[in-house]
Each structure stands twice: as structure tokens, then as C-alpha cells.
Amino acid sequence: MRLADACTIHTGYTARGRLEPAPGGVLAIQLRDISPEGLVDPEQLTRVQLDGLADRYFVRTGDVVFRSRGERNTASALDERLQEPALAVLPLMVLRPKREVVTPEYLAWAINQPPAQRHFDSAARGTNIRMIPRSSLDDLELDVPDIETQGKIVVVDALAERERELTRLAADTRRKMISLLLVERANSIRPKTRQERTSK
């Protein structure tokens, strides 16, 4: 299934200049607000003062944002922590899944998988800054199983990621313990100083 058939796609808001923080303004999601793990923390978003904005630029819980520029062209599903609409700023693209066809979590997962990433690699433009054209996003072919299967895939992927995190944590803890034991061992067998020998 083409991505354009699984969701509606809009470009983010084009900022004419630097977006200055403005208490009481609208929330804005910019490229820098997406963590390396692909997460968006609404508590860390900046508010900006902009008026007369079209609704298509705003994202809500259940929408997906796609990074169309930079080395990482990945997608992130917005969860229930986003309590109010937020302005998506270019180079972010807004993907609004057709919920009877695809879930936001599965859509983001599928876009982040190697087949989709290879598609973007072949379509990327730009020499200094990698950019993914809108047409490439529209034409991305995805395998879209039934909703129940999508849910199972997302759950298994989350469990696998948690396992990877725990494995990394266990390895890091093991390295620290071994280092501590080696330091203690080295300290216990070091030659005694002259002062230590004569203090007896």
C-alpha cells in the first residue's frame, strides 16, 4: 500500500525566521524536539506566538511526524501525553493515519524499518543537507496487515527494544563492577611505601 493511501500527508509550517519563545503561545514541535529514540516529550516543547495558522499544521495525539531533512529520516507517533494541539514546523511532515487502515504506532514503526529507509536513501536529494521529497513520501510502499496484527507487531517490537535496553544496562553494570574489582585488586598488591614499612 502506498503511504499516501494509508494517511493524509501535510508539510509542516514554514517559519520565516527564528521562532522566539512566548509564554501563552502555541506549542511547537521542531526537529530538535525529537530524541534520538524518536520520542517527543511535550513537557520540553517551546511555546511560540503565531496567529492565523491553518489547522493542517497542527498535530495531535495519534498523528505521526516525519523528519524530511537530515541524516535520520524517521517517523514518530505522538502519544496521549500531548494534551493539546502542537504546531509542526518544517522540515517535519504531518502524517495523519486513516485509523481504519493503519495505527499511528505501526505506521511509524514501518517507516523506520530498513525497506522504507532504503527507499528514502535512493530518493534523497541535496549535497550538504539530505532532504526527502514529498513525492518520495507519497510513493513509499508499505506492508499493512490487519489492525490486530499491527498491534502485535508494535508490542513485540517494544518488548525487543526493552530487552536491548536491559542488555546494555547489564553490560554497563558488569563493566563497572569488573573495573572496581580490578582497582581493588591492584591496590591490594601494590608495593608498600617506605613510610608504610617503617610504621610497624
- Count the strands? 8
Average pLDDT, rounded to a whole number, is 89
Helix content: 25-40%
CATH superfamily of the largest domain: DNA methylase specificity domains
How many strands, what sense, and barrel or not for the largest sheet? Answer: 4 strands, antiparallel
Can you tell me the number of structural domains?
2
Please tally the helical runs, counting DSSP H or I stretches of 4 or more residues: 6
CATH secondary-structure class of the largest domain:
Alpha Beta
**Which class of secondary structure composition applies to the elements?**
alpha+beta
Uncertain spans, ≥5 residues at pLDDT below 50?
Answer: none
- Residues in β-strands, percent: 15-25%
Cα distance spanning the termini:
83 Å
Tell me which CATH architecture of the largest domain applies here: Alpha-Beta Complex
Order of neighbouring strands in the sheet with most strands: 1-8-5-6
What is CATH's topology name of the largest domain? Adenine-n6-DNA-methyltransferase TaqI, Chain A, domain 2
Give the overall shape: elongated
Helix and strand pattern? HEEEEEEEEHHHHH
Keywords: DNA-binding, Restriction system
Organism: Peiella sedimenti
Protein name: Type I restriction modification DNA specificity domain-containing protein
